[in-house]
Every structure is written in structure tokens, then in C-alpha cells.
Design a protein that fits this description.
Length: 126
């Protein structure tokens, strides 16, 4: 929790209105619909933030994969290289999203996902 709060504080401090974009806010596989020419994102939260925020949401997904990965930051580096964004910001927004979503899933009893996200957050904070 402390690690996630520190990451969130750094993200807030780094906010720059000139760099902010409209982000989906909850971009993951359950909010993507396949159409003839690709995919469409649905159910947006829509907020102004750095683009790395949406990539951080992709970092929270598949928590078991992050637990098994020899280099869990590789996903952040790949996303950063693919989007020309900052890998550290992507990683840290992923930390925040993993904890906040894990807590929400625990509150509304979406298990085992909540426990898995919190276990991954705990493991990766060390």
C-alpha cells in the first residue's frame, strides 16, 4: 500500500496539463470489442491524464503472469517502446492500478482476481 501511495504521489506531482490527453481510464480486454477492422474500446471512464496512465492499466492485468515473470518490468518497457512513452511512469501507474483494483475486487468479492492482484502488488513492491 505504501509503495502504491508513493507511486501515485509521483504521478500526481508529474502531471502536466500541456501533456495531458483524454484517456479511456479502464482499458483492458473486458472493455474491448472485436469488430471487422480491429477492436473498439467500450465503457470509458474518460479522464485527462498522461497517456502512461492507460498503459499502467494494462500493467495490472494478468497478475499471475507478473508473479511468474523473471523480469516483470519487461511489459512496461515493451509498452513504452511501442507507444514512445515513459516506462517508469507506465510501471508506477501499474502499481497504483494493481492495488486500487485489487482492493475494489476484494470489496465487491470478485475473487480470486482481487487476491491475485494484491499478491502481485505485494510481491513486486519488494
Amino acid at each position: 500500500m505504501d509503495h502504491a501511495l508513493r507511486c501515485a504521489a509521483r504521478g500526481v506531482a508529474a502531471h502536466d496539463d500541456a501533456r495531458a490527453v483524454l484517456v479511456h481510464g479502464d482499458v483492458h480486454q473486458w472493455n474491448a470489442l472485436e469488430v471487422r477492422d480491429g477492436f473498439r474500446l467500450v465503457d470509458p471512464d474518460g479522464l485527462l491524464a498522461e497517456a502512461e496512465y492507460d498503459m499502467g492499466i494494462l500493467m495490472r492485468e494478468d497478475p499471475l503472469e507478473l508473479l511468474d515473470d523473471n523480469d516483470p518490468r519487461e511489459r512496461a518497457r515493451w509498452l513504452a517502446a511501442s507507444t514512445h512513452l515513459d516506462p517508469t511512469a507506465i510501471w508506477e501507474w501499474g502499481v497504483v492500478e494493481r492495488v486500487s483494483t485489487g482492493l475494489l475486487c476484494t470489496k465487491v468479492d470478485v475473487q480470486p482476481v482481487g487476491r491475485q492482484m494484491l499478491a502481485a502488488a505485494d510481491h513486486l513492491s519488494g
